[in-house]
Amino acid sequence: LTLLSDLRRAADQHEFFLLYQPKLRLSDGHCDAAEVLIRWRHPQRGIVPPDRFIPFAEQTGAIKAITLWVLQHALNQLASWQQLGWQLSLNINVSTRDLGQPDFPALVDNALRRAGVAAASLCLEVTESAIMDDPAQALRCLQALNEMGVRLSIDDFGTGYSSLAYLKKLPVQELKIDRSFVSGLDRDEADVTIVRSTIDLAHHMGLAVVAEGIETEAVSQRLRSFGCDQAQGYLYSRPLPAMEFIAWLKQHR
Ligand code: G
Ligand code: G
Ligand code: MN
Ligand code: NA
């Protein structure tokens, strides 16, 4: 339970840091985006992964400050990369609580302005379960963000229970296929069926498709043959600190 007070202090004490995982175009490997992933360097516990503290932060309301911290730091980082000539955009994960907050679009707008970053350089990832927690509120929130020009992505697609009726109404541009369907693509025919139908569904709805959790060349090749647009995974790169991400980009291009 001390984790809660620790969590409240973490942002002030500079215990959070961000990693960036490259997101590539599958057809030619071009990379112009990354997903931002938070880590917590706890003075006693060591590196605490987000699975361990994000759900907890959601329950206690600490998530609000964390999301704000992530937005500010990631967008400042993006602004300096763009000033150096890197044409990049970032994907940032938002939580259920964030979507339920009526002033969330205004917070995002404020963070973009303060950093001097165009809304189109930001893509927010929202899970299906966050949307289904309060679909009407999520829709209002996503509509406001969409009107600002922020791009929107459905994360962990296939693991929640969002109905296609909702998906149809949402102003999203991207769908991320959960890695639980991706990892077995080279051997599991059920996964093949699910992934191919998801790609077809997304394309028919005008959405770009990202596959996450790609660890082997065989999986990458299958996804390319299915027409998947973008890819993330350890095959290309693990999530990296900012400096290493830029070093990776230089090597990669
Ligand atoms: O990077 P990793 O696999 O440890 O991430 C685990 C989970 O934590 C993922 O579901 C990811 O979406 C979530 N996550 C990572 N960074 C953030 C963040 O900055 N904010 C929120 N809300 N979730 C995050
Ligand atoms: O839920 P979300 O998609 O935001 O979670 C992304 C998480 O997946 C991050 O914690 C990241 O560290 C992890 N991840 C990224 N690439 C791979 C991969 O190739 N394999 C596995 N097992 N995890 C990955
Ligand atoms: Mn994500
Ligand atoms: Na995911």
Automatic annotation (TrEMBL):
The protein's superkingdom reads Bacteria
Where the record annotates domain EAL, the positions are 1-253
Q: Identify this protein by name.
A: Diguanylate cyclase/phosphodiesterase
Q: What's the source species for this entry?
A: Leptothrix cholodnii (strain ATCC 51168 / LMG 8142 / SP-6) (Leptothrix discophora (strain SP-6))
First and last residues shown, out of full length: 453 to 705 of 730
